[in-house]
Structure formats: C-alpha cells, structure tokens
Amino acid sequence: MTKANESGRIDEQSKQRQLDQYRVDDNGKKMTTNQGLRVSEDEHSLKAGARGPTLMEDFHFREKMTHFDHERIPERIVHARGSGAHGYFQVYEPMTEYTKAKFLQDPSVKTPVFVRYSTVAGSRGSADSVRDVRGFSTKFYTEEGNYDLVGNNIPVFFIQDAIKFPDLIHAVKPEPHNEIPQAASAHDTFWDFVANNEETAHMVMWHLSDRAIPRSFRMMEGFGVHTFRFVNEQGVAHFVKFHWKPVLGVKSLVWDEAQKIAGKNPDFHRQDLWEAIDTGNYPEFEFGVQMIKEEDEFKFDFDILDPTKLWPEEQIPVKIIGKMVLNQNTDNFFAETEQIAFHPGHVVPGIDFSNDPLLQGRLFSYTDTQLSRLGGPNFHELPINRTVAPVHNNQRDGMHRMSINPGPVSYHKNSLAGNSPEPASEGEGGYAHYQEKVDGRKVRQRSESFKDHYSQAKLFWNSMTEVEKEHIIQAFHFEVGKVKSKDVQQQIVEMFSNVDVELAKTIAMGVGVNPPANKSEVQMDLASPALSQEQMKVNTAATRKVAILAADGFNGSEVNQVLESFKSAGITAEFISHNRGVVTSSEGQQVEVNQTFLTADSVLFDAVYVAGGQESVDALMASKEPIYFVDEAYNHFKAIGAGKEGAEILSKAGIVSNDPASGIVAVTDKNSGSAFIEAIAKHRHWKRA
Ligand code: HDE
C-alpha cells in the first residue's frame, strides 16, 4: 500500500493507480492458503482412511469452508440491486463565480468517478426492468476528498421528512407476513401508504410515468433531488439543484415489454451497461446545475427546501457545466459495486447542505447503514471507498483496520507530536460550513409552505403528451388494480381527484370503484415541456441493438448494405435463426448466428429486421417464432425493417409492410436503409396505438 497522494494533483487514472495496489492476478500462479502456504491438494479433504471421517486438522478445508460460510454481507436496506462502472468527470468552464470546489474549476482536469445505478425496492437478485425509481450515485474522487452525489432518476421524492422514510420503505417492500411481492409497488401496503400520505402525490405521478421503466441506465436523467448550496471563495452562496443529462436522450421501455424482460433477462440493464462499456460505447452524461441566489429563496410559489418539488427548468434554467464519461467496467462486482459506500454528507469545500428535512435525515442514515452492511467504522479504507486525497486524523482501531498509524499520539491537541495532525484553515482547504443564521423554537412541525401537495403533481400531468398520459393511466390501472382492498382503491381515486378529476374518474373506472366524490381539483394551468421525455429532442440510433432474422438463402447483398448503414449509425446487430452455427446467403456468404429463437427474444432488442431472400423467408415461416418476434416488436412500437421477401413475414403477422410514418420500413435500397435508421432513432412509433 503506498502513501496517499500528498501532492494534491489528480488525473483520470489516480483512482485506478490506487486500485492497482489491491488487484490480484492469479493467472499461472500456484494455489495457496490465505496464509500464503502452497496447497498441494484441493479436491479431497483430509480423512482417516479413504472412507473414514474428515479430520479437524485439515486447516485447508476449514479455511476454505469458513470463508465460504461468511461470503455474504447484508444487502442494502434500499437500493440493494445495483450496477456500477468507473469513469471520469470534466468541467467545461471554471465555476469560480459560484463555487470553490476544486473539481469544478479546471477544464483540463479529469476527476475519476465511480457510478452505481440501482433499483430501490427489490432484493439484490431482483430483475432490472421493474417499475421503480432508479438510483444514480456518483462518487467523485477529487483532490479535496470524496464528493458523493447520491441521486435518483426522478427529481422529487415521496416524502418531505426523513422520519417517514422507514414507513415509506416498509410500505413498498414485500409485505412482511409473506414477503410478496418482490420488487414491485403494485400491492396494498404501498398504495395504502400513498393514500394516507398526500405528500406522495407528485412523486407517484412520476413513479407511474415512463421514467420508472427506463430503456437503459445510459438513457435516463439523474437528479440530486435536494437543494444544496454552492459557496464561492468569498463565502457567497447560491442554492443549487444538480442534474445529469444523458447524451443518448431519455428513453423508456413499455410496460408489457418491461415485465417480459424481467423474465427473459433479469440482468437487462446491468448487461446493457456492461456491454456498452465493453464495446467502447461509453455512456456519457452532461452535468447541469440550477441556481437560485440566497436572497431569492422566497420568490417562488413553492418552497425550495421541499423535496417533493422541482424547480421548473423554464423558470430556472439548467446550466450545463461538465460531462461524465463511464469508460471502465469493474474487475470484481463485490469488491467495487457491492462494497462502495455512498453518503450525501461526503462533500468538499464549495458544496454545502440546505435545511431540506429529508436531506438532513439522510446525513445521518448513510454512515449508520454502512456500519452494519460493511461491518464496522473502517469501511472508508476499502479500496473502492478510499479517497485519493491524503487522510490524516486521530481515528484509530476498529474492525478490519488497515492503516498503520505509528507513534503514541492519537489525540488533539498535543505537544508530543507537534500538534499534528493539525486542522487546516479555510485558506488551506479546511471545510467551513456555510454560516447560515438559524433561529427557531424546537418544534415537531412541517412548514406551512410544504403543504401544497398537488400543484406540481398537476404541473407534471399537464406537461405530459397524450401518449405519456395514457401510460400513466395504464400504470394506475395496473398498480391500483393489483390492490385487494376496495377501500384503499377508493381512497386513491379520491386523492388523485385533487390532481385531476378526469384522471381520477378514469382510474375509478379501470379498477372498478366509484368515481370521486370530490369535484374540485387543484388550480394549475401551467405546463413544463422539459418534464416530458417525449418532447426531448434527442433522437439517435447510436448503440441500439437490432435483431436480424435470417435463414439459409437470405439476400446477402441486401443484408450487407443494411449492416453497412447500421455500422455508420453505431447500431449493433445480432443474427437470429432457428439454429446456432452459420446461415449462408443465396450468394454463398456465411454469417454466424448469434442467437436462436429460443435464446433470444423480441423484447431484448430495439428493432427487428427481416432479411430478404425467398428461401430464407420460407425457412423462417416454417415455424411461428419469427412471426411472434415481429408481432411483439410491433406491439411494443419498435422500428421494423424488412427486405423484399421479408414483407411476407410482416403480413403473416398482420403488419402493413411499408409504412415509414409508423416505423415499418421496406429496406430495399440505400434510401430506405436510412429511413430504417431514422425509425430506430425515433425509439417508439406511437402512431400505431
Ligand atoms: Fe437513500 N439510502 N435514503 N435516497 N439512497 C440508501 O444507504 C435514506 C433518498 C439513494 O448505490 C442507504 O448505503 C434515507 C433520496 C441511492 O449504494 C440508506 C432517506 C434519494 C442509494 C438510505 C433516503 C436517495 C441510497 C441504503 C430519506 C435521492 C443507493 C444503503 C431521508 C436523492 C446508494 C446505503 C448506492 C441508499 C437512506 C432518501 C438515493 C439506508 C433515510 C431522496 C441512490 O442509508
């Protein structure tokens, strides 16, 4: 273990160089025990005679088994299921005017980061594609210490005060008497909690929107949720909200597809992230900040400390200030993704907290939870958690202590060690809390300004396109439809009539309860187009995955042309056929079959292309799987392309063979090839609905 970097300068590889000291290469090496003793035999335990009892003195057996017996640690109480990657962050311009945070000053510096994406409710082994909020946590390994931005892919939260978090999570987790359902909010206790806690209204609208079923971790926004502070060198502060904007745009699955993916590939998002990085399609996110001057704190019709409220981007623009690139997969899931410990209280000078009561409670919870999850107070010494900045203090001992601090002095102040380690002045980088003036009585109260639970829920609803509204209604029908208690269902209808009476009537109809008695909804006529992912302009086919259905006798020149256009658009393709091995074109060209109709599934691809060539099409049509494959893609609104004879499969599935406006493209020449790419870039073709 080398000493920490005392020089202060960091670069993109600083963290990797540190991790290199812990990486172990077993390749070509002899097996040893944990004590370094070479092992001569690893298949038979030591016995008294070949058929006799195993002997206690078999230290190798005991060590191997003991380690195995203790290989599991408690999973995270929330966000147990996650996937992570390394990368770097670079600021576009110095942010000196607003913050003194060093990693936000110099555009030439690449600050190493580790990001962990997660679902909230499910266990560690649960499926990726469930309806849930996604965690989006970033650890910046800065020269001033670790800065953690522990956010979500939805900009608001269910509750306003941290004291209610255990209740929220108890309600959404599997019900305690029978541990059902796994990784799902569609059950009585969650909706009972919602109905009895009106502050959830806004977040529930997001939770039922397409945001809760992202296509990929690479295609979702990230939000710090809370209001934080930027503080500059002069001590001037701004309230800030943090944003991550995916370069590939914000894209989602459709619900039927999401449910099927949960079975067909529970690792859908994890694999997508892994493969993207593995193939050099590095996920990129731009970093944005919304800023409000301290003196403008009370200028809005919402309380900026209320975590169930967002700051409409049209009112307070997002200033894009940098970019993060994820370019390295983990070497070991457990050591890195599982052992990483985030904490919203890990800040650097220039970033400070606000009095958001949800944030304040989080500042306690995160270290506390690591104590039981990672087994003691030294989890900061685990390689993935180590800062690249030097660490000097008087903390000693504890479970699994790794640092060796020599000498008798472990207290401050002292004279025996020349009073070191010594606190740093602000000028030397010492963290100084923002000197906010606070004055109040000790009360258990919620501010009056936190009491409007419906205006922004309605703002969100107003901002949705028709298709997005339809999805929210379907999600209400599914989720509340799964609730057994008629009473809870009725309460939900009444509650959401405060948002929109028509919406509540539609929910009531779908779940079979009475229309709302309440006839007056909140007054809010504004819309915020920035909230609608359908209205975001980013449409690219890059990194999308297309299934090519082909059998022997496919039209080789046509397929080559399509592959060429895929390549230039950054699309990856897999050949699907009845059997693995190869398929041969009518011209004699052989291509490898990547998957069969048994191992692949339509829901795992962004688009389908049926290769032309009569012999191939006839062979494909000998069974119903290819027709089902295309039909599913159609039902999930995905782009479908077909070579000349491929159209026969489409018509067998009842699909009109050339309707580019609906994302069905006859791919017969170069022009139609680019029309197909455009159709893929559009992501979904709602016109079909
Ligand atoms: Fe968390 N949250 N949280 N949370 N949270 C945890 O910390 C908690 C909240 C978020 O990839 C836990 O290390 C409380 C909001 C993410 O490792 C725990 C409250 C937001 C992750 C915890 C909240 C988040 C966590 C569990 C209400 C979005 C995964 C394991 C006051 C801004 C981090 C752990 C990772 C994890 C507590 C609310 C995001 C128990 C008490 C709001 C992304 O400490």
Automatic annotation (TrEMBL):
It catalyses: 2 H2O2 = O2 + 2 H2O. The active site is at residues 79, 152. There is a cross-link at residues 343-366 (3'-histidyl-3-tyrosine (His-Tyr)). The keyword Nucleotidyltransferase does not apply. Keywords: Heme, Hydrogen peroxide, Iron, Metal-binding, Oxidoreductase, Peroxidase. Residues 1-45, 409-430 are annotated as: Disordered. Residues 1-29 have a biased composition (Basic and acidic residues). The keyword Iron applies. Residues 32-420 form the Catalase core domain. This is Catalase. It comes from Peribacillus castrilensis.
